Amino acid sequence: MRSVLLLLRKELLQAVRDRRTVLLTVLFPLVFYPLLFGLMGSMVEREQAQLAELVPRLAVAGESDDPLVRGLVGDPRVVAVHMTERDHALDRLHKGVLEVVLVVRSREERGVLGYDVTLYGDAGEPTGQAALARTREVLQDHFQELVWRRLEDLGVDPLEVEPPFTLRVVDTGGEGAVTRMLLARMLPYFLVLSILSGAMGFGAEITAGEKERGTISTLLSSRLSRTQIVLGKFLAVLAVALASTLVSAVGLFLGIRAFGGEVAGFSPMAALWVLLLLLPLAMALAAVVLIVGSFARTQKEASAYLVPLLMIIVLVGISLMIGAAEPRGVQLVIPLAGPLAAIQRGITGVLTYAEVGWALGSSVLLAGALLAAAVRIFRSERVLFRM
Amino acid sequence: MIPVAVEELKKHFPAKGGSVRAVDGISFTVGSGEIFGLLGPNGAGKTTALRILTGLIAPSSGRATVYGYDVASRPEEVRSRLGFLATETGLYERLSPWETLCFFARIFGLSTREGEQRAEALLRRLGLWPLRKRRVGTLSVGERQKLSFARCLVHDPPLLILDEPTAGLDVFVARTAVDLIGELATAGKTVVLSTHDMHLAERLCRRVAIIHRGKLAAVGGPGELQEELGGEDLAEVFFRAVEREGLSFEDANGVR
User: Fold this and answer.
1) In this structure, what CATH number is given to the domain that contains residue A81?
2) Which of B84, B95, B106 has its CB closest to that of A13?
3) Do A139 and A195 share a domain, yes or no?
4) B54 — phi, psi (to 5°)?
């Protein structure tokens, strides 16, 4: 074990002296994440402020002497114009001159009290969405007023009428629930990406890079056995990957704060689950990087072979982030997706001990199998001295 | 105990449509304190033979021992008794010469104190002491070659295996390397080196093995071989030996 630790120390010494490794594992997450989230935060904030002050421009199509039409056109909360032609109004909407078109039809001609109102607007665009919401609020007030007037016409005091029902929504998520949900969605994806970005470059350098530079013969001709060499390198890749992950987590939290969020909802128990589930995952990825690096003839070749793995991780990560896949229970044995989903469930506080067992057990087994494969491959002279 | 004994050693590599015989039944022994040269062109199988001797690769058949230890079954015992210098300098560019030597000393089982003492002695002897804290990546080719020698010697092995120790070096650096190899032999080390440089072999080696296309064409002292086969120098001896064995002069398809 002493020799393994000596090799580990040597590899780590080289890692901290490698600008690229330091840049990718430390500086990038610490600078990029806060910057990314800070920028996103300020952009969202600015947009929200603009939308909050939005005075929707709308056209009201209907009878010009109708009280609702007149009320809307005169309402100071909107910039409303009256148009008789619906199609003309819609044309203006499509051209972006207006945000909303209201088509008001009174039921009076049918001998019935009330209105049928149709709202036209672009809900797929933030301004259109906000304008529609604001118009709906304004309309609500006008409808309320019309109801009151109708009640008064019927000789009823509106203030004495008990509303037919009331609605109250209670958020049971407690303080920080939204942040926790966002964190649960994003954190596993960012963490697993950090593991790989930390392990990829460094792992390729200390395996394929050693072959490329010819230092591998020096190491192989030392007293170290091949198993010791693999273990030393494995621990070094794991250490760099975990350091990269830890720094990324710090960067992510700083980013969330820069975004204006709070991470108070992230419990120590959730942190423990994240760490526990992340370790075998990092071990498995470190072993994969070693296998690929040992097989490749050059660092460039190793990086090329690792790109598909990165793509798989991005795909799995995004599927989990957007909620397209939500494995649970025994499904958590699925490699990669299982532990990541378990981390999500751990953060939101719904992870069960059985699920920890499934996710942890399968990823520990996988990591062990991959490490054994890495040792086997490193022992093969056909692979190690591949021309 | 004989430092190196090789008997009917063979190494085949799989290739398209069959296999390439990189080493094809060679036998020789190397005595204590001897400088023994494996002489042959590029692709003759010299590097493969040396890699087998260092335990980096296993022989397909035959046997090689280093101080009585079989290289295939006891590679760790073998490696603790030898220092190997590959064709490349094989140094870590982000370590300093001091860190390099201390690391390899510890890997070979020396204590921290012993390792530091050996590192200091070697760096001073090779004139690298003032450069001990610089990164290896900033050293010149000659300084790196000296450091590579120091790295081979740090655990004080009785046997040195040097693969093309002067290849790619300029005339000054090559001279330093040659002098150093001579000094090591004088100090009692056994040296097995590979080279395609006939002059180097003539100057340094007490005995040489002429290898071509994986086969052994002749073994003996340069003078003895010259007497036996005729020829003005070792280069001529090489051609005559290859001819005598009926070997083709065609390249060995890149097998080293």
Assistant:
1) 3.40.190
2) B95
3) no
4) -85, -5
Specify whether A145 is located in the same domain as A276: no
Instruction: Nearest by CB to B92, from A215, A224, A225: name it.
Output: A215
Q: Which domain holds residue A96?
A: 54-160
pLDDT at B255 (0 to 100): 44
Provide the pLDDT for residue B252: 43
Instruction: Tell me: do A352 and A237 sit in the same domain.
Output: yes
Taken in order A90, A94, A97, A102, the sign of the CA dihedral is positive
Q: Assess contact for A296 and A290: CB atoms under 8 A.
A: no
The answer to whether residues A274 and A347 touch, using CB atoms and an 8 Å cutoff, is yes
Q: Which residue has the higher pLDDT, A378 or A111?
A: A378
Q: Is the CB of residue B54 less than 8 Å away from at least one CB of chain A? A: yes
Question: Which chain B residues are within 8 Å of A17, Cβ to Cβ?
Answer: 94, 135
Structure confidence by residue, pLDDT tens digits, A4-50:
999 999 999 998 898 888 888 888 888 887 787 778 777 877 888 88
Domains defined for chain B, CATH in brackets = 32-56+73-244 (3.40.50.300)
Q: CB–CB of A345/A353 below 8 Å?
A: no
Asked if the Cβ–Cβ distance from A221 to B14 is below 8 Å, we say no
Residue B104 contacts A, CB cutoff 8 Å:
yes
CA distance A43 to A49: 10
Do residues A137 and A237 share a domain?
A: no
Share of chain A above pLDDT 70, in %: 94
Given A128, A160, A192, which residue is the final one in a domain?
A160
Quote the pLDDT of residue A266. 63
Closest residue in chain B to residue A10, using alpha carbons only: B103
pLDDT one-digit tens code per residue, A294-322: 889 888 899 899 888 888 888 888 887 77
The residue type of B7 is E
Order the strands of the B207-212 sheet from edge to edge: B82-85, B159-163, B190-195, B35-39, B207-212, B215-220
B94 touches chain A (CB under 8 A): yes
Q: How many CA atoms lie within 13 A of B96 on its CB side?
A: 13
**Where is mean pLDDT largest: A177-186, A254-263, A273-282?**
A273-282
- Our CA-based measurement puts residue A187 at a distance from the nearest CA of chain B, in whole angstroms, of 34
> Which among B20, B107, B136, B155 is the top mutation candidate for probing chain A, defined by the most A β-carbons within 10 Å of its own β-carbon?
B107
Assess whether A38 and A58 both reside in one domain.
no
Query: Which among B57, B80, B135 has CB closest to A223?
Result: B80
Measure the CA–CA gap between A8 and A234, rounded to whole angstroms: 8
Phi/psi region, residue B213 (left: phi>0; alpha: psi -120 to 50; beta: rest), is left
What's the structural domain count of chain A?
A: 2
The segments of chain B whose pLDDT lies below 70 read 245-256
pLDDT band for position A259 (cuts 50, 70, 90): low
Task: Identify whether residues A281 and A180 lie together within a single domain.
Answer: yes
Q: Closest to B95 (Cβ–Cβ): which among A14, A214, A224?
A: A14
**A68 and A197 share one domain:** no
Scanning every residue of chain B, which has its alpha carbon at the shortest distance from the alpha carbon of A211?
Answer: B90
- Is A49 a member of any domain? no
Q: Is the ipTM of this complex over 0.90?
A: no
- The pLDDT value recorded for residue A7 is 93
pLDDT of residue B253: 46
- Residues A72 and A109 reside in one and the same domain: yes
What's the average model confidence in pLDDT over A329-335? 83
A285: in domain: yes
